Amino acid sequence: MSERETLLLREFKEKLDKLIGLHQKMKSERQLHLEEIKHLEEQINLLNISNQDLSKKVEGLKFAKSLAGVNEDSHEAKIKINRLVREIDKCISLLNK
What we know:
mainly alpha, rod-shaped, 0% strand
């Protein structure tokens, strides 16, 4: 093999080694990013569950407040009571089937 071919082969090997090193680095970074994404998705799910729970509590507090007479708008309370009565009637009719 000529000196030029040996030099080209050495340069090729160095570039290939560098490319393999970059590939390994990118592969490990990708894995870290995937783990971070998984962690963030879990956080999002927990926050969504918490948000739903808090929304239910807010609705319950609004309803309790309207029933307690703190809210002067008794019309809203009557609407909510009527809605609950309709839901109960639906449940009873389903049980009777």
